[in-house]
Amino acid sequence: MIRLLSQLQKSRSPARVTNLVVKMPQIIAHRYNATVTVDQYFEPMHPLLLKRAENLSNEFEDLEKQMSLGAFDQETSIKFSNVSIVLDLYNSYVRDLENLKGLVDIVNEETDAELISEAESEIETLVPLLQACSQNVQKRLLPVLKHSDKPAILELRPGVGGSEAAIFTKDLLNMYIAIAHFNRWPHTIVSEGENSAGFMNEAIISIDAPGAYNILRHESGVHRVQRVPATEVKGRIHTSTAAVVVLPKISEGTEQSLADDERQFSPSEIRIDTMRAGGKGGQHVNTTDSAVRIVHLPTGITVMQQDERSQPRNKAKAFSILRARLAQLEREKEVAEQKKLRTDQVTTTDRSDKIRTYNYSQNRVTDHRCGHLIHDLPGFMAGTKFAELVERLEETEFEDRLQNLIAQENCK
Amino acid sequence: MARLTLNLLRRANAINPQLVPLLKATRSLQLAIAELRWIKQELPRSQWTDAIRKRAQLVPLQYILGSQPFGSLDILCSPGVLIPRWETEEWCMKLVDVLRSAAVSDISVLDACTGSGCIPLLLKKELPALQVLAVDLSDKALHLALENMRRANVTIDVQKVDVLNYNAVPEQRFTLVTSNPPYIPASDFDKPLLLNGVDASVRLHEPRMALVGHLEFYRALARDIVPACHSEGVVLELGYEDQYLETIANLPLNWSHGRYFDLAGNLRCAIAWKNGSSMECLGRLVNENQSHP
């Protein structure tokens, strides 16, 4: 390609006549129709993103200056490496775009047919590369979502549908465990609750891989199932739901993290309830009741844990869940504020909406946010098709976030 | 104690007949469900019936299962030795946190009336630099403490010592003295739970020797053992205000002290430290001025 470009510079004729124009008598009119442009191969980035890239490169210079002056703390260096990765990608995008422009110019202005066909074939190989590169850059140019580097906590609860909903919740739990296995994410079941009839009424699972939150956060919402339940005798298809809440995991929820968790809250902010019936407590009582309930007074969030035999362990788990819920709340607030700026109503990510349907009789999983269908329900439940769906969801979300960013910019 | 209603028994029976005998011990359905789950998790199927039968006779679940979690450790429990309580676990973990952040080097700890060894073992496990000696009078306790030491994979010294007669031991220096001595007055031991007495399960199945005691232990610890060991700080678990007052009355003159309340809002420990010493960090455990639930 470099060879072509240099030839182009040498052979650029002052007349600027394309070979097509030569054949056509009405020069001006047909010249516009015939000329190839960059846009027809490739949609360039939104100007807003280009502006962000500019800001980023300014930031990079600042960071570089700071680093050279000896500011070498962890935060700066992480920021530095993040920015430099994005900039590297951006630079290669700019370089490729320039090349494409050069090739397009050749096609438009060259007279040598052989040179043109060579340029065209080069364009064909370049365009898909450029597209992939630009997608990658654009994704990274959007502001980083809060907590996207964190592990995740998933809370599952049955919705409408009685015992069938409970069975489906259990199926979903198994699906997330399968997904974790498939991706080799370490995971633990934090707690599992059963109602008096022995059906699951709550499950909390922690996926302890950094960044798991960023992938699994798309799972938040109502999941709908359509199938003939195991409990149905007449063979009718039922529709039931289960709700999934995905939280960023802030603290480990172990004895080691407990002291730190407790320091995060002032005593007036939380109330911790434990077994109180024991009168004097201590040596007087040897109960196994180790349940702990934490109430966060400003928000009214209540977390109860009783699965462990050790009370501090229950307390640590409860704190971990409380902190995750608070972090999620904070994030939702942020997202809502950004959304408010937009005039058109966005229907995605609303928790009251069903996000996905699992139709067993048609062997189909439909995601209602991106409209993607997967015709392999067992495969999806086994975790193998999950990545495919996440990719589609991320594309949809990217569009959405870009629109938000544009709206935000317009408001300024 | 709440009476078991026929309705509750019926409901338990409808869920799982195995819950009914457990209710005699737990008095609450929720707890019975939890205990049944722990029994099924930790014991082989062949022992379930026997475990449930024993539990109905108010044998502590910790003896039936054979262990109790204590911080990061799993402490073995067997009849004849006091079961570690959550209150002890709570202050012990806070103590670890305080000692760790104070970063005082070269600390040695004496734990008197160690029982299962839970306190010294957790301290040693979390803070490996400590020098630890655990003492008790009961042979069963000493035996179990040694077994727990092997299980926790740490090394501490264990000796047979009568705390009420400390002169018998060779003099040694200990920076910190911890203890969970017997602190239920004999008069309270036979009272029901609601009158500040003890749980029937405790009275029937836990060793009286580890439970019944009063001011004499605090006097001995503060007046005899602290000076003999040249200690700079103490953390003593207790259950009564008298015991706190007895402790501070017998401490050397230039010491400061404060009360520690547990999560349930009960007075649980006497904390004291020598002014100007490295153990002043223990002051952070004192929470008597904070609001209590």
TrEMBL record, chain A:
Keywords attached to this entry: Coiled coil, Methylation, Protein biosynthesis
Signal sequence coordinates: none
Gene Ontology MF term list: translation release factor activity
Domain of life: Eukaryota
Pfam families in UniProt: PCRF, RF-1
Gene3D superfamilies: 3.30.160.20, 3.30.70.1660, 6.10.140.1950
UniProt entry tagged with the keyword Coiled coil: yes
SUPFAM superfamilies: Release factor (SSF75620)
CC terms in the record's Gene Ontology section: mitochondrion
Coiled coil: 319-346
Family: Belongs to the prokaryotic/mitochondrial release factor family.
Protein name per the record: Peptide chain release factor 1, mitochondrial
Organism from which the protein derives: Australozyma saopauloensis
TrEMBL record, chain B:
InterPro entries noted in UniProt: HemK-like, N5-glutamine_MTase, SAM-dependent_MTases_sf, Small_mtfrase_dom
Top-level taxonomic group: Eukaryota
Species of the source: Australozyma saopauloensis
Any Gene Ontology CC annotation: mitochondrion
GO molecular function: peptide chain release factor N(5)-glutamine methyltransferase activity
Any one biological process term the GO annotation gives: methylation
Keyword list, A-Z: Methyltransferase, S-adenosyl-L-methionine, Transferase
Name of the molecule in the record: peptide chain release factor N(5)-glutamine methyltransferase
Recorded catalytic activity of this chain's protein: L-glutaminyl-[peptide chain release factor] + S-adenosyl-L-methionine = N(5)-methyl-L-glutaminyl-[peptide chain release factor] + S-adenosyl-L-homocysteine + H(+)
Cross-referenced PANTHER family: HEMK METHYLTRANSFERASE (PTHR18895), MTRF1L RELEASE FACTOR GLUTAMINE METHYLTRANSFERASE (PTHR18895:SF74)
Entry's EC annotation: 2.1.1.297
